[in-house]
Amino acid sequence: MISLSINRLLVIADYTERVESFVKRVLELGIEVVGHGEAYRRLSEKGYPIQPLFSSGEPKADIKGNIPDCATDPYFYILFRMKTELQESTPLFDMIFADFPKLGRVGSPSTFSPVAEEETVPSCVTLLRNVAKDFRNIATIVDESDFDWVVSSLAECGDIPLQGRRQLSLKVFSEILKFDTQTYNAFSLLFADESRKHLSLEKALLLQYGANPHQEAYVATLSGEDHLLRHLHGVKKGNMTTRRIIDLYKGIRFARELKEPAGVYIRHGNPLWVAVAPGESDYAALIRILKDESVSGGVLVINHTVNRAIVELIRRLPVELVAYNREIESEASPLQDSVIQSVYAYDLWKPSEWEYTYLDGCFVVQERDTEVRQDRFRKLKEELFDPLVEKELITAFQVSKLTRSDSVVLLAGSQTAGIGAGQMLRLDAFEIALSQAKRRGFAIKDTVFATDGAILDAELFARVLNSGVRGMVFPSVTKTNQRIAALMAESKVPILLSNHRHFT
């Protein structure tokens, strides 16, 4: 019968305080510790009774016979001893903690090399793959977060139960899978064969529930891609729902594309309010949003400094969630003590070049829609433009781009007056935006109009012009019907045409 007791631990890792704490507790339990690398060197210097992996500094001194030169690699050496069952100066181990190779070098064809930057990378993966298969005899740890429960188990029974060993083994294979996937994808880019890209998903965050309370849900991350969870601070397990995290992501995406100081209020995947504050030290536009009585239960994202005036306003609002840009100095700490359910800080990250939509067993993969750029617009009658109205039109178009299609945005100065989102007909979207603006007390003559797609309906075009808006922006089309062309020619308001449409 196989003995499952833990008597000897091998540590091959960089030094961290958590590694030191783990080794200290294991030693206190009477378990022998053997080490190699920075962790061994640092802990030995501190006086911990750790045995060296190689008694004379070189593995060749411990192995009889002819073996390849790469046996100087500790991972190869351990694997060699296990395979040959040598029992001399260095015994085998029944628990191993090893750093998994860092994968920062993988990803760019210009920087990736088929030869590993560290010679230990391939042999480390090979060793871990082999020992993880032998989980009944060897417990293999690759994640420092497992230290606490492993020590508790050792203190309780001197061993790690079989189910725990299985979980440790699965984590090793999960890391190997991510490593192999990223390496494969890097080679695919290197060899200009993107058709063979592999995707690897990992369950990362359990959500409180899905779109509705009766639906289970979690967030999965894509191997090799940067993602929201790495840059969102304050998230707790089970503290988030599907709607909240989607709204939060979209709010941050909105806010980061708006280069000026801005606040974005999101509900159910669409903006209810957006405000920019060009040069306004008191962020008056944002404060006007926050005072609006319709603000209730959504997600507020702020991409600029949170001052005390804004803090005091937010503390009195029935919003569920607030996020602010941590990279900009803010006075946001009082929010943590407010009645708001959750306050998060976020860092900016480089968005993925690709977007994935899952359709029951397959993915639709597309390039990410790029940011709105000023050089992608054409003025229809330049003499009608001034810098202010042009800026407002571009801002309105940005909001429309980030709103579910078909969308219409009415912007009044520094804030949205009305937003019509996710309609099958653009005329309906306009009527919704118009209704919102009137209900909120905005004069239509003070607003500019933006939509995410070309206007092909002459009735809509005439309706917008007749409403009294002070400017229009929309994507151009190759062929415009004669009535719309005539209306555009007769128009006395500035019209800005984009050479890109932005459906979402």
Describe this structure in words.
It is a single chain. By secondary structure, the chain is of the alpha/beta class. The chain folds into 3 domains: 8-190, Rossmann fold; 204-346, Cytidine Deaminase, domain 2 (3-Layer(aba) Sandwich), CATH 3.40.140; 374-498, Cytidine Deaminase, domain 2 (3-Layer(aba) Sandwich), CATH 3.40.140. It is 33% helix and 19% strand. The chain has 13 helices and 21 strands. The chain has helices at residues 17-28, 38-45, 74-84, 120-133, 147-157, 162-190, 242-257, 284-291, 308-315, 387-401, 426-439, 458-467, 482-490, and strands at residues 8-12, 32-36, 51-52, 95-98, 139-141, 201-206, 218-222, 232-233, 262-267, 270-276, 299-302, 321-325, 342-346, 354-358, 363-367, 377-379, 408-412, 415-420, 448-451, 472-475, 495-498. The strands form 5 sheets. Strands 8-13-12-11-9-10 form a 6-stranded mixed β-sheet. A 6-stranded mixed β-sheet has the order 16-21-20-19-17-18, with helices on both faces. Strand 11 (299-302), helix 9 (308-315) and strand 12 form a beta-alpha-beta unit. Helix 3 (74-84) packs parallel to helix 4 (120-133), helix 4 (120-133) runs antiparallel to helix 6 (162-190) and helix 8 runs parallel beside helix 9 (308-315). Mean pLDDT is 79; it is low at 56-71 and 103-120.
